[in-house]
Specification:
The complex is a heterodimer of chains A (about 475) and B (about 290).
Chain A (H helix, E strand, L loop, with lengths): L1 H18 L4 H8 L2 H20 L7 H19 L2 H9 L10 E5 L13 E5 L5 E6 L4 E11 L7 E10 L5 E8 L6 E3 L8 E9 L7 E6 L5 E6 L5 E3 L4 E9 L2 E3 L5 E3 L8 E3 L2 E8 L2 E9 L16 E5 L4 H4 L7 E8 L5 E7 L6 E5 L7 H6 L4 E6 L3 E11 L5 E8 L4 E3 L2 E9 L3 E8 L3 H30 L7
Antiparallel strand pairs in A: 1-27, 2-3, 4-23, 5-6, 5-22, 7-8, 8-19, 9-10, 9-18, 11-12, 12-16, 13-14, 13-15, 16-17, 19-20, 21-22, 23-24, 25-26, 26-27
Helix pairs in contact in A: 1-2, 1-3, 3-4, 4-8
Chain B lengths: L10 H27 L2 H28 L13 H22 L5 H17 L17 H28 L12 H29 L8 H18 L4 H5 L3 H17 L1 H10 L17
Classes of the chains: A alpha+beta (about 475), B mainly alpha (about 290).
Amino acid sequence: MHATLVVLLGLAGVCVYSVFLDSDDLRAELMNTTAMAVVWGVLGGGLLVGAAMIRNARRNWPTILAHLGGAMILAAAMISSKAGINLLNDTIRKDNPIIRDAQMQLVPKAFMSNAATGDLYWSDEAGKTKLVGLLPGFKLRCNSARMDYYSAKNDRWRFVLEMAETSSEGEKQRTQTTLPNDGRFATIRFPGVEQEWECALVEYLDPNSVEKATLVIAHPQGKIIKTTISKYPTILVDEDGLEVREITAYSHLGKMADGTFAEAKSAPGRPALWNPASEVEFSREGTPPYRAMVHNPANAVLLRGQQNNIPLVMVLRPRPEEVLANRLGEPAARIVFRRKEDKQEWSNWIAARVGEDSAVIPFAIAFQSEKEFESAGSPLLALVRNQSIKRYVADVSVLDPNGKELARHELILNYPFRHGGYEFSLQYFAEDEVPIIRVSTTMGLDAIYLGYVLLVGGLFGGMWILPLWRWSRRGPKEDTA
Amino acid sequence: MMLLAIHSPQGELGYLCLAAMIFYVLAAMLHASSPLLAKSKLVSLSWGLMAGGCVCALLAWVWHGTESGAFAAGYAPLKSMYEVMLLMTWMIAPLAALFRWGLRLRGLWIDALLGAVLAFPTVFIFQSEPQQVVPALQTHLFIPHVIAYLIGYLIVFRSAIAAGEVVILGVRPPRTLGMRSAQEASRALLRLGFPLITLGMLLGSLWAQVRGDWWGWDAKEQWSLVTWLILAAALHVPYTTLGKKFRRVMAIFVLLGAFTMIVTLFWSQIASALTEAGWLAKQDSYHVYSTKK
């Protein structure tokens, strides 16, 4: 019995030590070392010996159950641990190795025609992902993914100014100030900038009303040109002689490993998705043409710096219906800045980015350089969704190698499904609503659950039910609870 | 290093919590003084005040749950420390009744004082900002996991108070006929609370599995395991020669378990303070619900 105390307290000590390690991974590593495996094994053996040593089994059956439950949990946990699975894979599962733990990125089929995949990945501590295996004999396909929101109490969007502020302890924190979004001007001050500015949100652009792609050009001088362009070639010449031409219209773009863009349909691997985009060429007489990829409908691209005469450009293009269905009414908005001193105005566009709670643009209206921008607290203006996410939902099909649907599941956070010896649980949505799925083997899981039932049943049986039963028979003075 | 900031009571909810705290303080004072004044009516009045504190805290909890939309969404408001403390504040009164009439424990003033201590942060420390239930908390395991733990914590904490008496005053027979001694009380309460703590931990593990792994080695999970291991050791102590020879040993184990239990409950706040002081690397925990999506 003293050995039991030593093992329990020793384990508690190691657990306390592990808390002060930097990450869950390091803790897992420590608790899964060979030395710890011995300790876990001793504890499991102790539980079995304890169960065998209990006298008067008829009276003390709950205690025996609890001990057996604990031993079962430990045994199943050791078999299904990383080392246990590796041992199985090296011996009896050589031909059909078990993958203990992996991730899948399920690109919704609206973004990628060949979206079905069986690829299992794992990320190392540096964040690099590597392929660790394939699902055995089946694939998953994400038919659609969406986020549901709680209904908004007031406006669905808030217009906010976000700035970095340095605290008294020297730490940089970003603070948000909500600005009026009804056209009224609000006064804003940037740290280190003497002049006061006023800012107002003056115009919404609802993407649902846009039948064709809309090109919005905001000149550095403050001039705004908004025009509808049909698929290439469209040429727009503004008053300054700047010619803007859409070279290629992409329905969906994938970012390739080398940083270039290509249509997601042909992009192998798991591209980060960029939604409707255009390659646009700007030219002005006497200067070489400049081509740029403008992706959106949400992400405005600030094309300044190298090409000072190139304005801010953004493209708004209707989305495929299945994507649009859950994204109604996300706005783009025009904001106006006014310098209080001389009432000079600048205007800029800001839009909501798909799959994110907010859309931000760095604005360079008041600042001449990146350094000046940073010293003013790197201010950002954002349209922030005034609603909380209610749930993440991915509609997932299980397919056989020929593409035949075997099962279909609505995968929600906290509600996994099982198939082919694996459990699939939704973890989060990556950029542009790509569901990230955690895949774990079900090996040993049911034994662990049975151990839970025995342990809890034994404890409640011995400490609650039996004393209550005795109390009901003999009266409160005789109970042992 | 500032662990928590004190603020004045805010809004109707703040005043309801304040009323609960005052009720509990008065109940504790009256009950503690009843033996001196030898007036049994004071004991009844203490129970009345205890009930008043419970009703105020319960009203505040229901009000907050309605305002935050938690009940409408089908969840109990248990997602922040404010809501958790509020729940424990009203729960202490029915538990006190269970201790008195179910387990024959004396010391209502201890339970009342505990209620006041639990009410204090809901009035002066934690904010009552209503938050909607984030997706991470939307599971049928959420409410049983938290409730099992909270009731288990309250019972084990009460066991630790009795254990404290054993450690300080030694093993003594009960002062009131028909009631339990401090040592018996501590053991009975531990046997009542330990299955709940085990249930809470295993429900948490089931919840972790639906997110991908049944034990994630999260720091708070580790503390809960430490608490469980120490309390399991405490339950084994009376069967050892050490425990039989030195009767205070089990009480010391219970006190140690209660300490790690408090660390588990407030680990998010403690970890933030330790991180701020530079003694701990920043930890990302599943248990910081308010920032989770």
